[in-house]
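Supplementary Text 2. Reproducibility record for the structural model of the 466-residue chain.

All settings were left at their defaults, and a single model was retained for analysis rather than an ensemble. We include the record here because the model underlies the residue-level annotations in Supplementary Table 4.
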Amino acid sequence: MRLQSTYKIYFLTLVACCLTTHTFSQKLKADSLRNALINENIDSSRVRLMWQFANAIYTYTPDTALQLAQDAFYLAKHINYIEGQSRSLGILATTFRMLGNYPRALELNLQKLQIEEKRKTPRNLASVLMNIGIIYVFQEEYNKALEYYSKADAVVEKNNIEDIKYNTALNIGDAYNRLNISDSAYLYFNKSLELAKISNDGDLIGTSMTGLGHSYMKLGNYSQSLLNYQQAIKLLKQAEDDETLCEASLGLAKLYDKLENPDSAKLYANLSLSIAKKDGFLSSEYDAAEFLTAHYKKIKNIDSAFAYAEYSHQLNDSLNNKTKIRELQALSSNEQFRQRELEEERKITAKKRYQQLQLLLIGIFIPGFFLLTLLLSRQKIHIKIVRVLGVLSLLFLFEYLTLLLHPTVAELTGHNPIFEIMIFVGVAAILIPLHHKTEHWLIHRLIHHRVYHGPEGKLDKKNSPA
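Retained model, structure tokens:
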């Protein structure tokens, strides 16, 4: 089954970052989101508006969408807004996929998967697993695609996520069909058909029947293949699903070719070609032209075969040019993404440097404060002030030690709050008694010099500590 139809069905009904049908309405929505973003001051709300804004514009201004989604991701990361991080990564992955930058799209989807594996949101987990499978289909790694589709299906079945069951069945059937494991493809296409009938959606029913047409033809059951293709074409015309209609028409043309019915084969191949040409589906147009080239060679119509061979060659050049353009776009988008990453790394480095400077200043301040306390203790000031300064010196010291220990403890425990609490309770059990003993000793030393003797060597109790 062709990639376009599976991708279309999945993204219209499952992925969180889906498009609306009309570009005009998307632009109106984008304008509304832009205005809301300008007036929003709450960080979490800004993250939400940014990824929604990026989602609304990524089809026609992908560069801006990438910048918005990346900014949303870093802001969400800064405020520890997990949902915002996941959504932003999803938009970034979808935009890179649209630009043909499949490795980057896969990388971002895998990052999103790491987030979703730690959360209790099965639908989101199934969604990202399906997205990863789709990227592998684009890269023609069908076994890997099947692996992730199957993982998504397991999540869907375990959690009974009804609205995703059709998509998992359809996509698994598609992967098996691409791998030419036709019996398994038939089982999953048939499962998707049953689910589509429950929803009474003609477009979904027609798509599943197209898949069944492929499976029956490969299994040698031509009568059932013919029946499914014919019904699918009727439903897809009614639903105006031209992408899947191209696929079903060409599938039927191939079936008629096997049945030695050249006129019908030519008729449906030309139907697929004309629809693809009208809607700009270059890949589908090329497939139909290739079939017609072989068809005319088979019936010894050399002139038509040559004409379609030339036509196929031109389409192939166009596809190659489109591929080169997408490769350039991928390079450009990678550089844009890298520059934004470098900018964020510079911010993080500057922040760490500032924190280190603060710790250094605190480290200098504590002994300085202690020395100041010693100096003041030698002046004629009230003993209570000396005592308070001594206590503050110790408090600063012990709090500074806790501050220094916290990152190390967090790293050792993997940020596990239970282990962190146990360690800090242990540290406190040592520090608190030590603090009291040290405080008693230090305060005694600081104010001891305030006890002085008269000219005859007698103790002056006027200024002695109580």
